[in-house]
Amino acid sequence: MSTQDSVHIYTAGFSFHHKPFYMSEMDGVKNYLMRLQTDGRCRALVDGELVPVESGDLLIYSPDEPYELLIGEEPNAQGELAVESGDYHIFFGGEWIDQWWAKQKRPTRIRVPLNESLLSLFRQIVLEQRRMSNPYPEISGYYMRILCLETDRLLSEHPSTTPRTYLAYRMKHFIEEHASLSFKLEDVASHVGISVSRAVHLFKEAFGTSIMQYTLDVRLEMARERIVFSPMSLEDIAETSGFGSYTYFHRVFRSRFGKSPKEYRMENREQIQTGIGVRSPN
Q1: Taking the model in full, what pTM does it have?
Q2: What one-character DSSP code corresponds to residue 280?
Q3: What is the DSSP letter of 279?
Q4: Domains by residue range for the chain, with CATH
Q5: How far is residue 190's CA from residue 192's CA, in Å, rounded to a whole number?
Q6: How far apart are CA 270 and CA 275, in angstroms?
Q7: Which residues are listed as membrane-spanning (predicted)?
Q8: What does the pLDDT look like over 139-164, one tens digit per residue?
Q9: Exposure string (b/e) for 110-143, b if CB count within 10 Å is 16 or more?
Q10: At residue 113, what are phi and psi to the nearest 5 degrees?
């Protein structure tokens, strides 16, 4: 890896506090800092003010930017005062990071969905840093690049950080992660802690489509890719893509793509063999 492409991770870890904790770097952190609040609450310096930080808040600080963290008594889920705060934190830098940071202005605090894809990136970086003997240190650097780019994607997908849009995007990510499984509207609403009627309204308001229609769209796209690229039987594809029965899958697939799953598989595999490529869905 060239110097220009370098990414360095200086410290990475996970902390959970049950006792008060205070940290202050008013002269600025020496490297970039990315901190994801996963549990409980704390307070951190954002735009010159010590503000509440909750689960799902991602903080990003650049070098020389003042940093202050206060973990004390905050209301828990039951409304009781308690000291409870969990977070992933990464101090990092490098030429690639400098270039990434300069590409756009990012807020210090970003609301993000605490889904497995994001958490696994933090977790993997921490695990790589804990290796006593690591002949491939650049691996953690590549994970860090992905995390930075994923952060930008999340920011572009839902730049608004209002509670309403945050809940809507959390539901959207829940659907995308669980589309291959059977779930109900109640499960989606329960995931974000609101009623079914409010969940339906917020999702429609944010994305212009219903929860069930979006779920169907995700499942059909999942099935379409498997039909073309996997050796699975059409019945197995229907089942593993979240459809309750092959009859229903056959009907909605034909309605969406204008041909049966079998016809779609034969046509697109012929195109692949002749070098034409897969036809994009209408």
Answers
A1: 0.65
A2: P
A3: P
A4: 6-155 (2.60.120.280), 162-272 (1.10.10.60)
A5: 5
A6: 9
A7: none
A8: 999 999 999 999 999 888 765 556 67
A9: bbbbeeeebeebbebbbebbeeeeeeeeeebbeb
A10: -75, 135
